[in-house]
Request: fold
Amino acid sequence: MNPDPKELFSHAAYRDAFRAAIDALPEFDGPYTGASYDELETQISNTDPLPESGAGLDAAYAEAKQVLADSVDVTDTACIAHLQCPPVAPAIAAEALVAATNQSLDSFDQAPAATVLEQRMVERLCSVFGFTEGDGVFTSGGTESNLQGLLLARDMALDARGNDPRQDGLAGAEEFRILCAEAAHFTAAQAARILGLGESAVVEVPTDETDRMSLDALDNILEGFEQSDETPIALVATAGTTDFGAIDPLAALADRAAMYDLWFHVDAAYGGALAFSERHEHKLTGIDRADSISVDFHKLLYQPLGCGAFLVKESESFEMLARDVAYLDPEGDGPPNLVAKSLRTSRRFDALKPYLTFRALGSDIIASFVDHTIALTAEAGDIVRMNPDLELAAEPQLTTVVFRHTGDTNPDALNETIRERLFDAGDAVLARTEVDGDVYLKFTLLNPKITRNDLETLFQYVCEAAVTPEVVA
Reply:
């Protein structure tokens, strides 16, 4: 017998679903089970994900629990590979509420209170970053935010030439160039491709010994543009590179952007959280002079994926995206037309997650988590320096430690094997990266639960995996 819709679409049904979801959350025993891709493919391929007749809610929840059991446990202190944070409890509750109420922030009548709350969150974020006349919108994360920043940069540059990017497309944009550091996130190049400029429009500026954009190199490139047909339109700075956590010299870059009339975008998806820390906010000096900023809540601000924000210093910047859609937001005075600020139409009420988190805990608690992980990252660097078999690729700057084991004639193969063995055994989830073509391991410390003892245990795992017989084939 088919279930009554009342059993599926009601507050009582949702409450039951919440309880069932709690029961379906696995009790993890370690950072990962060690299941291989082939094993998981065999297990999951035996289930039809789109059956004609359902097995019932209880059976479906039981199957979901089995699938989730082979997830990485992001709350485990040995799961430290990527910028994948353990979400704090209030944010998990907010995620469920976001899903259950299913507000869509593309018109006020689909999300009345959500529209007002998101705008209030944006106002407060702008004040945190020094944007007194700013505005913004919630995004899925840094990829979308960076794309939106460079979209505005491109369209502003076209508009300044008297070209209408809406009607004329890319006419006159062939010589446009975007500058970013060699260590910038790949989404700068990806955005250039999506925007029709091509990845060759991105000019990578060499970095200095701290992995920050070199000002001397930037000056040489900018001076070279004056003698060429190329036209720089945007300067992208990074506040927290993925591997080394480096923060570009923001104030000095703001000076260059102003001198050459460039759109200044700061990718602070990772390091933007420092704005909430009295101890570390000075590292973002100059970010208030950016034209636009990307900041993610699902990294060092402990929210579930995906939750980010895109902020602009001048609210008028969004006029380049303005669009009136009769069935969404009629013209005239009234609530803000949020669909005109976003690259998306249907959009989740993700602002509720940081709202509930900060209202429940306060920014001081969140800042203490950030401060703890940064301090512990420095201790991790000390541990590496004290071990003769390990070496740092660079001094830790934010919450990443890039290092490798040196106890073999083929360190690249050795470190690949160390990572694979720890993952396959379910002992630790570490990342690998490359520095000047050499393979290194990486700890990304986002978990406020982690202690120095945890770090020492993890480094011990690394060293034990390195001396296991037949490490290198």
